Amino acid sequence: MNNIVITPEKPKYTLEELLSGANSEDFEGEYDWGEAVGEEVW
């Protein structure tokens, strides 16, 4: 049996395109990720 499978291509974005909708309010302050739970180095 022969099948034809059509898969949509995933869009490829540049960093500039991804950050175009971001503003300085999106990056204010720091985020507390909590204590290390594995082999993270802080």
Q: In words, what does this structure look like?
A:
With 42 residues, this protein is largely without helices or strands. It is 12% helix and 0% strand. It contains one helix and no strands. It has one helix at 15-19. The chain is flat and about 55 Å long. The mean pLDDT is 86.
Order of helices and strands: H
Report the total helices.
Answer: 1
The share of residues in extended strands comes to under 5%
Q: How can the largest sheet be summarized?
A: none
Mean pLDDT: 86
Distance between the termini: 56 Å
Taking pLDDT < 50 over at least 5 consecutive residues as the criterion, the unreliable ranges are none
Q: Tell me the Rg in angstroms.
A: 20 Å
Q: What structural class do you assign from the helix and strand content?
A: little secondary structure
Strand segment count: 0
What proportion of the residues is helical, as a percent range?
10-25%
Molecular shape:
flat
How are the SSEs placed, and which strands pair?
Blueprint: H1 15-19
Quick structural summary:
The protein is largely without helices or strands and 42 residues long. It is 12% helix and 0% strand. It contains one helix and no strands.
Kindly list the characteristics that best describe this protein.
1 helix, 42 residues, 0% strand, little secondary structure, 12% helix
